[in-house]
Design brief:
15 strands, 5-stranded mixed β-sheet, single chain, binds iron/sulfur cluster, alpha/beta
Amino acid sequence: MTVLIPTRLSTANLDACPSTTTAAPSAERFVLRERGQREVFCGLTGIIWLHRKIQDAFFLVVGSRTCAHLIQSAAGVMIFAEPRFATAIIDERDLAGLADCNAELDRVVTRLLERRPDIKMLFLVGSCPSEVIKLDLSRAAERLSREHTPRVRILNYSGSGIETTFTQGEDACLASLIPELRRTDAAAPKSLLVVGALADVVEDQFKRIFADLGIDSVAFLPPRKAADMPAVGPNTSFLLAQPFLTDTARLLEATGAQRLLAPFPLGAQGTTGWLKAAADAWNIPAEHFRQVIAPAEKRARAALEPYRLRLAGKRIFFFPDSQLEVPLARFLYSELSVDPVEVGTPYLHKQHLAMELDQLPETTLISEGQDVERQLDRCREAKPDLVVCGLGLANPLEAEGFTTKWSIELLFTPVQGYEQAGDLAELFARPLVRRTRLEV
Ligand code: SF4
């Protein structure tokens, strides 16, 4: 087993390893379910934004050279800093059973921790190859924890591309943190937990708004430092900041914490609804709530207006990729008057998305899963103005004359909250402007 630490920017092709008017109540609306060939990235992709978020964590992928190339290509900007991810390559000797993979892994981890005393939390990240050879990373994490605790916490999760989609990597990573969190009991003061990786700038904005509302005990998962893990218990209420955290939410609920029913904080309306869910749980008077949010909400609406004029009436088609599709379609429809023709999502969690689904028009087809050829046929027939899809489909669709937007960009860009509402709209307007310029 050798370790591949990313050292320089790579421009390798990421496609190489892909692993209208009336709303329909979410409980009743038809959902097209498809289980055919899919075109999605694997959960390793989450490392690209997670390693920036937890600043003293390290992600050691136990995988193949393909896995190493995927994350190195996608996170190539790390040439400017000491990388906080690497791949322990499972080579031919490991695959042939000639080497003891567990002993090799222990050796690699020990050497890594000796060289990098700044690492406080180490994630062993499983991949397709480690699953194929049935390398038990949970036992490896337990064994290595005994050796390296308390200096380093060692956890594991799977980022494998077998039956997963790329944002599930974050869900699996955060879910692995839940058993580590300190438990509080019913006597503990009421606290709010915001769950899902947000850009630091967005997190700081939300912190200020919660403080102005009078909600003081607020924590974020994941935290910026391994030592700042929040405590959870029956007096914890949590708000999901991302729609793809199914396992994390389930494990949090098992601790007694309660999920607040809210839309996702995209755009002016989405952000207000999200903040209102917390304000209501803290019995904040409606007048005070309006007073606190009004200036930022007004700024967001003003930032959206020029985009609404440009985007209104455009027809959009979402291929399933990031699991952000339903909240994005809600934002585009209700705040920018865009017409969502089809909203495909890899998995549809009706409870988590209830408030968003309720706002989508009846004419929008919601589809879950994928049969890529059939979906491409529907897209060609619909002739949308803009297609949101993964990188693997974008180039072929552009070649056919469609205007596309890479859905993965929405995970790398700060898009939540009032101050980012205009930037979010810009992400959808830009490809249309580019297409118009190309046609001139
Ligand atoms: S985990 Fe699987 S799908 Fe992802 S890069 Fe590695 S081999 Fe490819």
